[in-house]
């Protein structure tokens, strides 16, 4: 089955036997882990039909990319200020609507406009820069570790800033090859941090990493 684009059919020779693109060139030096999204926005095309915008897990984050159907290159959209990841919601003419995410503050809606130029900056926030006051006391970090004789693991650590005593830890592995803990705001983690706990969201064998970490 070929992948249908807005204007043409994706050539089957570019796919492997399991339907994975053999090679994707990126227009940035940052790692691209692959496309693991379950759906696309109803409007995900650039005005000229050459770009498809999509969001996918990328290790412990969610990132928005544009796929160029002429060069087959992947372009990562720039992140809004204060955000570690983004989710594309809508594309209309030269405007793109994006949800900026972070583990230390609730999601924010941003809109960007830059005719004919991608990747675009996301300068304007529709929701402002409001934060829940207590989230300013939280810190988030991504840690990687490898168990001897086993695969590499990655986890998101959320913890209170400047704790007054030793911080107890809540570990939450997802344990599923078809799910992933990302950097989207997590109300449960926020709740435990307000009680003085640190929360470790462990990812392994997940969809946001490349095939080598799943086999």
From TrEMBL:
PANTHER family: ACYLAMINO-ACID-RELEASING ENZYME, SERINE PEPTIDASE S9 FAMILY MEMBER. InterPro entries: AB_hydrolase_fold (IPR029058). GO terms for molecular function: serine-type endopeptidase activity. It comes from Daphnia galeata. Keywords: Hydrolase. The lineage of its organism: Eukaryota, Metazoa, Ecdysozoa, Arthropoda, Crustacea. It comes from the Eukaryota. This is Acylamino-acid-releasing enzyme.
